[in-house]
Amino acid sequence: MAKRTFSTLEGFLIFLLVMMTAVTVALLSLLFITSGTIENHKGSGFPVTQSPPDTLGSTATQGSTLTHGSAATQTPPVTSTPEPPLFQNFSGYHIGVGRADCTGQVSDINLMGFSKTGQNARGILTRLYSRAFVLAEPDGSNRVAFVSIDIGMVSQRLRLEVLKRLQSKYGSLYRRDNVMLSGIHTHSGPGGYFQYTVFVIASEGFSNRTFEYIVTGIVKSIEMAHQNMKPGKIFINKGNVEGTQINRSPSSYLWNPPSERARYSSNTDKEMVILKMVDLNGVDLGLISWFAIHPVSMNNTNHLVNSDNMGYASYLFEQEKNKGYLPGQGPYVAAFASSNLGDVSPNILGPRCVNTGDSCDNANSSCPIGGPSMCIAMGPGHDMLNSTQIIGEIIYQRAKELYASTSQEVTGPLAAAHQWVNMSNVTVWLNSTHTAKTCKPALGYSFAAGTIDGFGSFNFTQGTTVGDPFWEILRDQILGKPSEEIKNCHKPKPILIHTGELTKPHPWHPEIVDVQMITVGSVAIIAIPGEFTTMSGRRLREAVQAEFATYGMQNMTAVISGLCNVYTHYITTFEEYQAQRYEAASTIYGPHTLSAYIQLFKALAKAIATDTVANLSSGPEPPFFKQLIASLIPNIVDRAPLGRNFGDVLQPVKSTYRMGEVAEVTFVGANPKNSAENQTHQTFLTVEKYEATSATWRIVHNDASWETRFYWHKGLLGHSNATMQWHIPESAQPGIYRMRYFGHIRKQELLKPAVILPFEGTTSAFEVVAH
Predict the structure, then answer these.
(1) How confident is the model at residue 444 (pLDDT cuts 50, 70, 90)?
(2) Which of 7, 95, 516, 766 is the 20 to 30 Å CA partner of 612?
(3) What percent of the chain stands above pLDDT 90?
(4) Quick check: helix, strand or coil at residue 507?
(5) 698-700-704-706 Cα dihedral, nearest 10 degrees
(6) 82 falls in which pLDDT band (50, 70, 90)?
(7) Within a 10 A sphere around the Cβ of 474, how many other Cβ atoms?
(8) Amino acid 33: pLDDT
(9) What does the alpha-carbon distance between residue 183 and residue 102 come to, in Å, rounded to a whole number?
(10) Confidence (pLDDT) at 80
């Protein structure tokens, strides 16, 4: 290997990295002497002691609990909310839908997804929502809940806490087997709600403020769906979506067998699956759509919290169905859930060298001049927000077409299956005579390279299959050496960080993982705890459908629901793993991860098909850590400039605007994260129109509207400004308008606890006129 040289800048950055890492490790060691303090979330609807497992394809290292409806093995309710009587004499399902705000803090927190230092939230483009769907059989005996959440991914800590609160209110009605939580995978939502060290570091600390906000929103959406249940019917439709995707690792995809690739017309999954829900009178209730695409139209230069392209599709569908309601309000709920999006990008113009304009669609995603940092994929719009809307609009329109034309009714019983599995130690049967094993978690070099949607640091490149002595020495000095066992298990991945062997202040990656499936008649929804690539998803769906058919359940539709229950990065095929691009380097349980999941999900399918779910054990319970690394950003009191008050106008609006222009105002502001603690106000802004006939102001937009922007500008010593924009649409009605600002200040007097108080600000009236 040729000797590697470093520029002055690289040398300085490496020195800075070493010093920061050393300081961080030292601080963590001091702060978390009790780092081993954990508790298991007992009583998530199941007893601690379970029946011994039967074989069902599981190995001795895998414990499983699968339940079919309200099996006799469930824990009695602790505090049960009385059930409203259900009308039973009909054909279909009881259907309940609910939507609740789960935005969390929109400042002083890292956005979760790109793991880019400095990509902190500085305002809001749209609210984030949890959308829940509760289904029950006519007699109420079996039920399931599916929840799609506008966050990057569901963390294990979120799920455990949600289940704990549901059990407290409903007893054993909602449990870990029949409640499925799925993140849409926006990269523009707040982090801070994780417990494993890698994700805590990526979030720049744990934020109990945001964690509580998200948990509360998820639980509230389920409560709303529970209360709104009514008899109805479900219909299914499928169709391809064109013009929204590219495979961002096409060279990896080509490692899959030619005979397998020949069966498919594209290197991405173009099929969208939708479930349409209506009441017995045909009144629309809700929609769930699954489609494989990364919500990264908003790139890693963005600082506004939003739900990206899939959230925009939900926004359009709900606005269409909830006429006269503000965004986030109204009875109709439309979820655009994630699927096997691991290698799928919405940036359809493809990777280009931003300095030369040449294509960099190569195995290393690198440019001749500037390397990987110059290789970036662009979306179809003139900026990232426009690209978000273009992609989201296409997805929405296709869903609308499928929704309008659907006629195939979904019928049959509801079932649910779940197990906790130690994914670092699964024996995989490759054939009837040979086995392999999964590995303790580890990340490869190409993980640090990032992707064409967001490059990494220090000039790491994708496709790296050989370690670098410099980084190995640095890692060994700071984190210790990886064992020979973990290095051999992960080959050909060169290990950058041996996370499965790091336990301070807490384990760096999960070992205990949720594996879950729910069936709604002929639809099997597979909860994957990460990001499956295109071909990985195809293999899993095919295997599950075949397993159902083997045991008498023909013509099942297997749907992959992504980013569910616990996050474990990526899952590539064995062949794609050999290429060691970003997705493979991030397949943390080694080259046989996909085979292990296929084996596990086939066991769930068999158990449901043969009605033997109650015979399997639960598996090892995951931990719930009591102490976590707090955010390094302190809470300080807010201060207004001398002679000014919070909410005072600093830069006023103009007196007149035309449609298509941007109305903008700047106020004396306060830190928006205060509003995640004190939710006196449910929005940071409103746009209001004066109604002369009633002499009142009517709200026409809030901060969930895609026409508005809320920017927070952080100053020194608690000073800050807030800028609001209204991008006036062509559909706006001429008339008199005003904009209002709603915030909260942190105030603290000497020797007294801090209090958070609401305030408001209002612009002068302005006129909107036609062109």
Answers:
(1) very high
(2) 95
(3) 84
(4) coil
(5) -160
(6) low
(7) 15
(8) 29
(9) 12
(10) 54
Both tokens of 656, joined, read 């007149």
Q: Is 68 annotated as a binding residue?
A: no
Q: How far apart are CA 16 and CA 392, in angstroms?
A: 40
Rounded distance, CA 80 to CA 46, Å? 15
Contact in structure between 571 and 536 (CB atoms under 8 Å):
yes
> How far apart are alpha carbons 668 and 682 in whole angstroms?
19
**Matching residue, tokens 């952080």:** 714
Within its chain, how far is the Cα of 413 from the centroid? 29
Token pair, residue 717, equals: 């010593």
Count other Cβ atoms within 10 Å, centred on residue 219: 24
Contacts of 275 (CB under 8 A, 6+ apart): 234, 235, 236, 287, 288, 289, 410, 520, 523
Backbone angles phi, psi at 115, to 5 degrees: 50, 45
| Residue 736 vs residues 709, 731, 765: alpha-carbon distances, Å | 20, 15, 6
Single pTM value for the model:
0.90
Q: Catalytic residue at 345?
A: yes
**What are the structural domain ranges in the chain?**
93-426+506-611, 648-769
> Hey, which residues does 710 pair with through a beta bridge?
124, 724
Place of tokens 């199941």: 46
Catalytic one of 345, 365, 387, 595: 345
Mean pLDDT of all residues in 600-606: 98
Task: Write the CB contacts of 604 (distance below 8 Å, at least 6 apart in sequence).
Answer: 64, 66, 417, 418, 419, 515, 516, 517
> Residue 596: what residue type?
A
CATH number of 648-769, picked from 2.40.50.140, 2.30.30.100, 2.60.40.2300, 3.30.70.100: 2.60.40.2300
Identify the pLDDT of residue 79: 52
Looking at the predicted structure, is the pLDDT value of residue 54 above 50?
A: no
CB 501 within 8 A of CB 522: no
Residue 531 marked ligand-binding: yes
**How crowded is residue 324: how many other Cβ atoms within 10 Å of its Cβ?**
6
Q: Are 31 and 505 in contact (CB under 8 A)?
A: yes
Residue in this structure with the two tokens 């029946």, named with its chain if needed: 51
Q: What's the CA gap between 238 and 410, in Å, rounded?
A: 13
Query: Predicted confidence band at 5 (pLDDT cuts at 50, 70, 90)?
Result: very low
Contact 279, 232 (CB under 8 A): yes
Q: 345 vs 87, 296, 309, 736, CA distance in Å?
A: 45, 7, 11, 42
Q: Which of 48-57, 563-572, 577-586 has the lowest mean pLDDT?
A: 48-57
Q: Do 163 and 44 form a contact (C-beta atoms < 8 A)? A: yes
Strands (E), 694-734: 696-702, 708-714, 720-727
Of how many residues is the chain composed? 771
First to last CA, the chain: 66
Distance CA 237, CA 409 (A): 9
- 399 pLDDT more than 90: yes
Q: Which two tokens stand for residue 300?
A: 């890693």
